[in-house]
Amino acid sequence: MRTPPDTSHDARNAVDRTAPPGAGPKRVWALPGGPGCAAHARGVLGDALASLGVRPDTVADARLMVSELATNAHQHACDYGPHELWLYPAPGELRCAVFDAYVNARLPGYSWTSGDCGRGLSIVRELSGGRWGMLRTSSRLGSPVQGKAVWFAVAVPESLVHAASP
């Protein structure tokens, strides 16, 4: 039985069930553990989007958003590998996700009083125009491991969506 998508504005615990069954990332990269995780994700995603012809300002936004997601994966799920970076087409957009095996984690809430922490997902929400969320799923590299993928989408012309498809 399929659960309807969470339509609330609070994505902290939302589970995205809008992807069609069997849909998944078309490009997958392993992310290294440690503090270099975010830099690696920024570089890989930036190169992939640029090679597809995505506009430079969209690439810059995507690099910032993936940096936030990879940093969260390193800080909050460092012991829950594997960590993966996914890129896949959806109608009118490209979705990027960072996977980790911390399956029971909830997305942290946002707080202006939390010091240097807690603002990253607000950046993702803002830059993605609210097109982001979390999907409970399995890893794609090696043996499947249960976990979650936190994703965001960037709007691109339909021709680029088709270029990203196999």
From TrEMBL:
This is ATP-binding protein. Coiled coil: none annotated. CDD domains: HATPase_RsbW-like. GO terms for molecular function: ATP binding. Keywords: ATP-binding, Nucleotide-binding. Signal peptide: none annotated. Residues 1-27 are annotated as: Disordered. It comes from Actinomadura yumaensis. SUPFAM superfamilies: ATPase domain of HSP90 chaperone/DNA topoisomerase II/histidine kinase. InterPro entries: Anti-sigma-factor_SerPK, HATPase_C_sf. PANTHER family: ANTI-SIGMA-F FACTOR RSBW (PTHR35526:SF3), ANTI-SIGMA-F FACTOR RSBW-RELATED (PTHR35526).
